[in-house]
Amino acid sequence: MTGRPFLLGVVPGATPGKWIGIWNKRMPQVALELVPISVSEQRRRLDSGDVHAALVRQPINRDGLHLIPLYDEIAVVVMSTESHLSVAEELSSEDLSGEIVFTPSDDVLGIEVAGTVAAAVDGSLDTADAIATAASGAGIVIVPMSLARLHHRRDATFRPLIGGPVSPVGLAWPLHPPDDEVAAHIQTFIGIVRGRSARSSRT
Fold first, then answer.
1. Cys-Cys with 177: which of 9, 57, 156, 183 at CB 3.0–4.6 Å?
2. How many C-beta neighbours within 10 Å does residue 10 have?
3. How deeply is 162 buried, as exposed, middle or buried, from its count of CB atoms within 10 A (0-12, 13-18, 19+)?
4. What architecture (CATH level 2) is domain 74-166?
5. Dihedrals φ, ψ of 156, to 5°?
């Protein structure tokens, strides 16, 4: 391969796989490198130039950024496979009354369910640890579905939360890329995300 790689930041749970495959076919001379970024650091990594573009979770400060909304993730309730909640196909907030809820330190939903009880260690566990704790039967965790899948465990399961918040995922990039080469790579990736063919225009 020739040329600098295109650096794409990816927050946990985002799945750019199909776009990477198209990039590799369309741009064999330019490597696409995935750069894991946290939600708390996503804006800083874009501002610093650590990544050229990023799959981000909203909300994000859009000053100085372009952003294309891509999809919304539903919230799910993660619990032990032995939990009484697991018998339902989906859950309402009323179903969670009295449940102990672990809110991860890297929480992206900011949900508070009336009638639930905040765990004593609330905020001291990241998502992976909170799910592991919920799997033990100590409580539940509410996260976007992709994070429940990312941290899948045999002793944990999840159910959709009716009326729960969504976690919007989008593609963000700086209004002013560092140079023309990076700008061209960004436009190519935007075209791939939007489903444009290699010969179609940007309009």
1. 183
2. 17
3. middle
4. 3-Layer(aba) Sandwich (3.40)
5. -130, 150
From the list 158, 150, 104, the residue with the least C-alpha distance to 127 is 104
Instruction: Give the start-to-end residue ranges of the domains of the chain.
Output: 6-70+167-193, 74-166
Output the tens digit of pLDDT for each of the chain's 203 residues.
Answer: 567 999 999 999 999 999 999 999 999 999 999 999 999 999 999 999 999 999 999 999 999 999 999 999 999 999 999 999 999 999 999 999 999 999 999 999 999 999 999 998 767 899 999 999 999 999 999 999 999 999 999 999 999 999 999 999 999 999 999 999 999 999 999 999 999 766 554 43
- Terminal alpha carbon distance of the chain: 29
- What distances in angstroms separate CA 45 from CA 16, 51, 78, one per listed residue? 18, 6, 30
Distance CA 177, CA 106 (A): 29
Class of 6-70+167-193 per CATH? alpha beta
CA distance 110 to 123: 12
Residues 6+ apart with CB under 8 A from 27: 6, 185, 188
DSSP characters for 23-44? HHHH-TTS-EEEEE--GGGHHH
Question: Token pair of 120, please?
Answer: 């004593």
